[in-house]
Amino acid sequence: MSQQLIPGYTYGTHEVPRSPVTIEEFELLKQAVLFTDEDARHLQLSEKVLEDQVEAVLDVWYGFIGSLPQLLYYFTRPDGQADGAYLAAVRKRFAQWIRDTARANYDQSWLDYQYEIGLRHHRTGKNTTDHVNSVANIGFRYLFPLIFPVTITLKPFLAKKGHSAEVVEKMQQAWVKSLLLQITLWSQPYIKPGDF
Amino acid sequence: MSQQLIPGYTYGTHEVPRSPVTIEEFELLKQAVLFTDEDARHLQLSEKVLEDQVEAVLDVWYGFIGSLPQLLYYFTRPDGQADGAYLAAVRKRFAQWIRDTARANYDQSWLDYQYEIGLRHHRTGKNTTDHVNSVANIGFRYLFPLIFPVTITLKPFLAKKGHSAEVVEKMQQAWVKSLLLQITLWSQPYIKPGDF
């Protein structure tokens, strides 16, 4: 699916607000998580590895979210039922997010879009992109814990194209580092002024 | 060093406020990070493995913090110099934190103490325990990224007592899950009311 055909995917457009975190501040964060050019290269390798597996990865992740009521809750309507159209709309952007994470072109446009993603998790912007009537805010508490199930279930997919155990491990570690950085950026709208 | 001799270590005492997160809510969080009894057992195994290596682990972690000015900053005095006495006081509790994390007795007392640890990182309680004149607040942005360097540098220590690569991996993964949970709990004072 080309990017133009993904509803609500505004990466690189003028609709995306400027990130409150500068590129210089992001470089300092990368140092703290030990993110290097080698990680960017392993992410880019993972892009090729995952290219034809994106939907299969999403099946696993959606299966996990669907298996835990405390997570599926954030996709429910006022009647308590999961909103299938909402789940489907998010899934298209989720697929593109896999590609964008793996592409590892973490420049100003990417940084700005991480802020936008954070706003869409937070009550500031949740539900508006897909015009849905769902829970107002994704609880901060569930943002970071998902890094573990997401990256541990990614590993078998990373291993499917014949790379050595060491290279698979490095691809997975680069994903973990990237997610620690990304979700830190997504958290910004949740944090009290001055405490970020 | 016995727990009674660690200044400011108030775990299990009446000085520790009640956690705003209930045990039931914490159980839901554990599900989201895939934390099971098997993880608790691997953490407890790591307690024995790390027992005589705690100071060596802290040497590595303090070396990392000392190598990045953006991290060491949180231990500096108004004149910009690192406060050695502050670093030393925190280090004693840091050693006990390794033991407490590995003990994996994540009950109400432990939950309450995670809240206390969060308050001590946040401007609510930073500097007061050690009566120091330092930076007012640890920036939220640096809390989660440190999970990677902390757990990757722990791995060689976990491997030093002859356990199989698989068991070492499981011990390390249990540490990663525990840290995702703990730092989520520590974040509570940073989050806007209602958004946690």
UniProtKB/TrEMBL annotation, chains A, B:
This is Protogloblin ApPgb. One of its GO terms (molecular function) is oxygen binding. The lineage of its organism: Bacteria, Bacillati, Chloroflexota, Ktedonobacteria, Ktedonobacterales. Coiled coil: none annotated. Residues 24-193 form the Globin-sensor domain. Pfam families: Protoglobin. It comes from the Bacteria.
